[in-house]
Specification:
Elements: H1 2-21, H2 34-52, E1 57-61, H3 66-77, E2 82-86, H4 97-103, E3 108-112, H5 126-140, E4 148-152, H6 164-167, E5 171-173, H7 186-218, E6 223-227, E7 240-247, H8 248-252, H9 263-272, E8 278-279, E9 281-283, E10 289-291, H10 293-297, H11 302-305, E11 308-312, H12 321-337
Parallel strand pairs: 1-2, 1-3, 3-4, 4-5
Antiparallel strand pairs: 6-7, 7-11, 8-11, 9-10
Bound molecules: pyridoxal-5'-phosphate.
EC number: 4.4.1.16
Function: Catalyzes the decomposition of L-selenocysteine to L-alanine and elemental selenium.
Subcellular location: Cytoplasm, Cytosol
Length: 339
């Protein structure tokens, strides 16, 4: 009886996960999480290449989550694959389809580009990237092997419409913990997302927009807010905003490196005020800030990236949260500046 209940729970979750990402239920493979899923895809592609008798070549973007980048870099360091890490830009929000096309080789077995970046929320042009890959295969002719295309959609589900089949991709990473709220089961959360995505998206976009407007309107004169990825070609997921707060005088004189507003310090103060934010850098005890490798990979200057904060809103966030957030942020900045 217990076994049957457990099986039903798993099959219900499988069915709703499948609907949430646009695949058949039989295509869903459960793993321990996104890290294992991304590792599995990279390793599967390498085995695929070996079976084809080629030295596998893998293309990834430089802004991928470490769950993709680290295994790819590890295999490259062992000499098992050739790896191309493509540069992303803030204009594009990700890597461009033309850069992916230019990186392809007859030995390419895998292209892995995340759908929504976890730090900026920027959306990649997956349809354009898949088209570039399939066009390349057609040019090589019928003897060409299929280039596997993977997207890490961990930050996309529940935020933007995702349809793996329409995208024409081979693998997609889904993470339950980015969708499920407290006390929800995976099938319930996915069902809610499938049925209410438009409502959730509109609500999150409204709160995010209010936060960004309030940040601009209430920023004290001696400080400046620099947004990262706010205007990109392919848009952003509605839940995320990423920005740096810098002393205006330092920003204008090109000396942002001397800023005291390293994000670790701000996040610490915000957290004491009950506001959870993610930082774009780690400040070491010696006062040296290490900016987020993802923001630097986007081409953002390290001196600005070291102050970056990522704020995400959820299905339950309210427009009034924007006021409370800005107040807590400016207070935290003043505390850090006067410390
Ligand atoms: C984009 C992205 N990929 C992969 C992961 C890793 O997933 P997990 O923590 O389930 O291993 C995360 C974590 O949230 C993520 O945001």
């Amino acid at each position: 009886m217990q076994g049957r209940l457990a099986r039903k729970a798993i099959e219900d979750a499988r069915g709703w996960v499948a609907k949430a990402v646009g695949v058949a239920a039989a295509d869903v493979v459960f793993t321990s999480g996104g890290t294992e899923a991304n590792n599995m895809v990279v390793r599967t592609a390498v085995e695929y290449g070996k079976k084809l008798g080629v030295r596998p070549h893998v293309v990834v973007s430089g802004i991928e989550h470490p769950a993709t980048l680290a295994p790819a870099q590890h295999l490259a360091s062992l000499g098992e694959i050739d790896l191309t890490v493509l540069r992303a830009s803030l204009d594009e929000g990700a890597v461009s389809a033309s850069d992916v096309a230019a990186a392809l080789r007859p030995e390419t077995v895998l292209v892995s580009v995340m759908l929504v970046n976890n730090e900026t929320g920027c959306i990649a042009d997956l349809p354009g990237i898949v088209k570039a890959v399939r066009d390349w295969e057609s040019r090589l002719g019928p003897a060409a092997h299929r280039v596997l295309v993977h997207t890490d959609a961990a930050q996309a589900i529940g935020k933007i419409q995702v349809d793996a089949q329409a995208l024409g991709i081979d693998y997609l990473t889904f993470t339950g913990h980015n969708v499920v709220k407290a006390n929800e089961a995976l099938d319930q959360a996915c069902e809610l997302v499938v049925k209410n995505l438009e409502t959730y998206t509109a609500a999150m976009a409204l709160v995010r927009s209010e936060i960004e407007k309030k940040l601009e309107a209430t920023c004290p004169k001696h400080l400046a807010v620099v947004f990262h990825g706010r205007q990109t070609r392919n848009g952003r997921a509605p839940n995320t905003t990423n920005f740096s707060v810098v002393e205006r005088a330092l920003l204008e004189s090109g000396s942002a490196k001397q800023s005291k507003l390293c994000s670790s310090r701000i996040v610490e103060r915000l957290s004491a005020a009950g506001v959870l934010a993610s930082r774009g850098s780690a400040c070491h005890s010696g006062g040296v800030a290490v900016p987020s490798p993802v923001l630097v990979a986007y081409g953002i200057d390290a001196s600005i990236a070291q102050n970056a904060l990522r704020i995400s809103v959820g299905r339950d966030s309210a427009v009034t949260d924007a006021d409370a957030f800005c107040e807590a942020l400016w207070q935290s900045c003043e505390q850090v500046l006067s410390s």
